[in-house]
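Narrative progress, year one. The postdoctoral researcher (J.K.) led the effort to move from monomer predictions toward full complexes, under supervision of the PI. The following entry was the first complex the group processed end to end, covering 447 residues in total.
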Amino acid sequence: MDTARLREIAWNGLWKQNPGLVQLLGLCPILAISTNLVNAVSLGLATILVMGLVNLVIATLRNLIPYEVRIPVFVLIIAAVVTVVDLAFNAWLHELYLVLGIFIPLIVTNCIVLARVEAFAAKNEIGASAVDGIAMGVGLVCVLAVLGGIRELVGSGTLLAGIDLVFAGSQPLTVFGDDYPGFLVAILPPGAFITLGCLIAARNWLDSRAARPSATAAPQAPEPATA
Amino acid sequence: MTTEYTASRTSLRTATVMVLFALGFTALMASMYGLTRPVIEASAQAARMSLVGEVLPASAYDNALLDDAVRLGLTPELGLPQGGLVYRARRNGQPAALVFEAGSNEGYAGRIDLVVAVLADGKTSGVRVVQHKETPGLGDYIDQRKDKNRSHPWITTFNGLSYAEVGAKGWRVRKDGGQFDSHTGATISARAVTNAVARVLDFEAAHRQRLYAAPPGSPL
């Protein structure tokens, strides 16, 4: 695997095919969990781990899986890997589990995992697949961090609430002071949709702006979402 | 290897592969479960213990309280449609306190799960909200971790009070004519907790002897 290909895979995950902003897959957990920065990043980190691992396992077994029944077999493998990760975290990394634990089972319902397995790991070699899973996860973490940060800041005027569960003794930042009344809409589900919509718009604007200076290139249509 | 692909042959092969995958990954999960179970149970026990520690000081009892529990079946009085446990704290063999699992359906959004510790003289030792879905920033002050009043969280207003002294009329939120304050605009959450605690105290007073006397592990 050469560096050009590696860079392409990473760029796909982080920007071009970003799971949160372009593929728009796995919106259910993304919107539900991104009420604050710490939760959002925690879910993202758990997703990186699961996606890297699942892509790795499926790429390893890809030649054994009959094409006609690949989807049920993928679902079986994803569910099994997530269960094993969940149990292992609970038993041996219990401190981390208390923070990430509730997010790991949520990832089973996240169709971004199945989508990457089907679109990438089933057709590519082991190393590239693992990198793809991790890159997609990192792309998701970035979106989740921005989404969670904005919602928490606007909604409750703080940043990093709950950080004391991750690093004992650390304090959340109170950005707007103690008498900030809060803006409940940002924390409730509509706020998640509105914020995500703004982020998608911002990403598309940046993309079209980047395409403009090179006058030869026609305004680039955003990549179609594969749902 | 033959290159003859008939329908029955293909489906048989596919089915075999699927069964093998299912068997393989089920075995993986089962062995992982067996491997991790003792560790997970130990930490679940520790988590339960630290929750009990929040509502009942460790100095109040000297028995292995988690092993000295009675199981309640369906108990609507405590808001337990699936039953729950009552842990019994004893000191020198004498009854010290009962720790109840309880719940309420009167919340603004969904079930509220509580742990209530009641001392042997009927006084409340402590109450904690374990799980709830009340509106963030509005009704979630019933959860001590979310309460902005750090020095005197709302949930501690019950501490040291007994149902017999306060009376059924007084053990309500102020809006219902009782003595307990609630935050303006979020009375429902406070009312749900207050009423649930009242029901636990009432239940405790009515069944105290039986609860302390029942053999450990038995259903009441």
